Amino acid sequence: MYLQRRNRILRQSQAVRSLISETHLTPNDFIIPLFIDEGENLRTEIPSMPGYYRNSLDVTVKEAKELRSMGLKSVLLFIKCKDELKDNKGAEALNPNGLMQRSIKAIKDAVPEMIVMTDIALDPFSSYGHDGIVDGDQIVNDATVDVLAQMSVSHAQAGADFVAPSDMMDGRIGAIRKALEANGFTKTGIMSYSAKYASCFYGPFRDALDSAPGFGDKKTYQMDYSNRIEAIKETIMDVEEGADIVMVKPALAYLDIIREVKNAVHVPVSAYNISGEYAMIKAAAKMGWLDEDKAILETLTAIKRAGADLIATYFAKDAVRLIE
Ligand code: PBG
After folding, report:
1. Residue 277 counted as domain residue
2. Fewer CB within 10 Å: C terminus or N terminus of the chain?
3. Tell me, what's the pLDDT at 324?
4. Structural domains in the chain (count)
């Protein structure tokens, strides 16, 4: 058989495959979400996220040092707020001595080179478990944006390098940028969850922080997963309003969106390999149905290939171990 072109020539050995491979994971690609709890010397495994923990702040600081020594450069902080501190307006989110603010300071003091990013949304602080202020059955936009802007300034004051609004209210990026500028925080970045979909895959995360919505769902602010154009609209607006980094979330069922966003904007694009995506791999591996290490590498490489410059993932430590 005569063939002018044989594609298998480029796949014939590991050496040849390495020469031409297009996508490589490095420790610089990852953002590590950390769940922080009150208390001391506490490590609580999250039932729906086997192998992942909610830690007290002292343990978190040790963890941050370890992550840095592995070459990881950035953490994304989430805190579990005590029930008695939750209200409708997220007052605790603005407490200068709140768990989030103390965590930012402690990590920056212990590991100054670690880039500390913080979640901006009301859900962990909300008695309703919603990302915004509730009025009747509505999640009100503008009043929420005011609180989110104040929350961002509070995190910047505590030392956050980037604030990461995950709430999907309209106009919050512009309001946050304005508030940061007004308060002299000209070096604080904004990583916007620009295209965040209303997804069932957030379930395990809501277990981790006890932040599931008390009524209804998040469909009036998070996006409809049947939509594509809306993702581009949201992202372009966030860039215009001042986002430094944009994000697509979730990642795996949204690889097409990651690619379209990557082609549409000229800022770094991140993707969040979320809790449910972690749980699926863990569960299948536990059953012996998937090779966990291979599934992790294939998943993260696919997210990067789709166009993510950065990946927030609970698998970051595993990935570093596997790529070294
Ligand atoms: C809350 C927030 C959520 C996640 C990050 N920030 C959950 C939600 O929107 O209900 C999900 C992360 C994950 O599932 O890993 N604003």
Report:
1. yes
2. N
3. 87
4. 1
